[in-house]
Amino acid sequence: MALPTTSRAWSVRDIHSDNFDGLVLQEDVPLPKLCDYDVLVQVEAVSLNYRDLAIPRGLYPFAMNLPVVPGSDSAGVVLAVGPKVTRVSKGDRVCTLFNELHQTNPITPEAVGSGLGGAVDGTLRTYGVFGEHCLVKAPSSLNAVEASTLTCAPLTAWNALYGLQSKAVKAGDWVLTQGTGGVSLAAIQFATAAGATVVATTSSNDKAEALKKLGVTHVVNYKETPNWGEAARALTPGGIGFDHILEIGGAASIAQSLKAIKLEGVITIIGFLTSSEKQPPLMDALNHLCIVRGIFVGSRQQFEEMNRAIDSAKIHPVVDPNLFSFDDIKKAYQYQWERKHFGKVVIKIEN
């Protein structure tokens, strides 16, 4: 069977602040010839992140070059490899790495500027040529749809819980997650697999039962309990607070996270949700004697570690039941924009 020479691909051509009309589907986009370290991948599935929605609406504050093929997360099958490729082989199922140049920690300025679907062409295409350095083998226990969710949200959760080796989550720890986004859901799974106790916040009582099914011990509704930081802290043994807090809400919630953290605990700030609320002063970390850490997804090395843990613990990512087709990308974007999802929104690609 002859290898493909072209691909169908979505492209963010321009910015529209109130819709996704900047997304344009292109036919017969030429594929480059394989160089020594290149890999030709047939993309099977792509999952969405808030970042993917933010880029065509002009809300993304990091490196971006238009026009660009959107999407960072994907799983696919290797169709061919360059003559010097050693990390993957024909027939392997692989996942893409969010920042192509983030191979190991610490992250570098060059790695920060190498994000798929923003700075360089991403994954919303039927075929792609990628350097072997920005691919990892997918967990053998996951199908393509599940594996397509790992690139950003679960890897960010893994970095939050394991990125500081001296503070890595362990059995007996208490972990606080916020909301039902992809990072929080993955963090719940990783923390419970490690033997930690997880408390989650949400604004929806309807989602509380779903969170408990994932392993959450206590759920706090932050709309019903505005001072949720103290309420969550009171749930911990002796009221001493949490070992790990994944801070998703930004300025709107960091003050409550500071109330909930234990001495020497770690608050990991994730994402770039905007807020008009005043940021707590940096010196508040001293007042609470805690570590406040910002992260940007994770490295290839961490991705490989995470995938081994996923296979070992038999963890299956939470995927929204509504799968979208490649031609329905705008519908998928709008579905997630309207927050109708629970779990990762996935586009399944039929080649």
From TrEMBL:
Matches recorded under InterPro entries: ADH-like_C, ADH-like_N, ER, GroES-like_sf, NAD(P)-bd_dom_sf, Zinc_ADH-like
Transmembrane segments: none
Domain Enoyl reductase (ER): 18-347
Pfam families attached to this UniProt entry: ADH_N (PF08240), ADH_zinc_N (PF00107)
GO MF terms, alphabetically ordered: oxidoreductase activity
Protein name as catalogued: Alcohol dehydrogenase
Organism field: Trichoderma arundinaceum
